[in-house]
């Protein structure tokens, strides 16, 4: 797998990242399917260890990666496809302001069957001030009623 990820990264089709927390591997994020030309898009896939879920690690990582895609690489659109029942993963992109665009029926073969996925997307114009800034502003907002 590492050899494949390195080869795809060297070819400019993928950016694989690992997530470390307190010196320990706790997740992975991959910018894949990078397409240039008139499309200028990519998709994001990720996972995080349940032991650190809910601490803001994955929204921060997604925000940093998407900002890199838009600002440094010059991509225009980023998609994230998530199984409908994966509520924690859906919360990550919803917090960051990704739009839900619909369902891709039988999109990926997982656990022995073809699984539906919800498509979330964001364009560079929708994140002009940066996703990391959006995420920090959201986290620093006072609770309702204050």
TrEMBL record:
Q: Which Pfam families match?
A: Acetyltransf_3
Recorded superkingdom = Bacteria
Cross-referenced Gene3D superfamilies:
3.40.630.30
Per the UniProt entry, what species is this protein from, by scientific name?
Answer: Kitasatospora phosalacinea
Know the name of this protein? N-acetyltransferase domain-containing protein
Q: What are its GO cellular component terms?
A: cytoplasm
Give the N-acetyltransferase domain ranges.
1-125
GO molecular-function terms, A-Z = protein-N-terminal-alanine acetyltransferase activity
Q: Which InterPro entries match?
A: Acyl_CoA_acyltransferase, GNAT_dom, N-acetyltransferase
Family from the record: Belongs to the acetyltransferase family. RimJ subfamily.
* Record keywords, A-Z: Acyltransferase, Transferase
């Amino acid at each position: 797998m590492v050899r494949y990820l390195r080869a795809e990264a060297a070819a400019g089709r993928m950016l694989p990242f690992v997530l470390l927390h307190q010196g320990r591997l706790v997740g992975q994020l991959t910018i894949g399917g990078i397409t240039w030309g008139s499309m200028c898009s990519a998709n994001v896939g990720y996972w995080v260890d349940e032991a650190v879920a809910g601490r803001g690690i994955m929204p921060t990582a997604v925000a940093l990666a998407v900002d890199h895609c838009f600002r440094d690489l010059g991509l225009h659109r980023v998609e994230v496809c998530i199984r409908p029942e994966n509520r924690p993963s859906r919360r990550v992109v919803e917090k960051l302001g990704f739009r839900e665009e619909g369902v891709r029926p039988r999109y990926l073969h997982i656990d022995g069957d073809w699984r539906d996925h919800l498509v979330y997307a964001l364009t560079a114009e929708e994140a002009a001030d940066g996703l990391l800034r959006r995420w920090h502003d959201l986290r620093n907002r006072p609770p309702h009623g204050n």
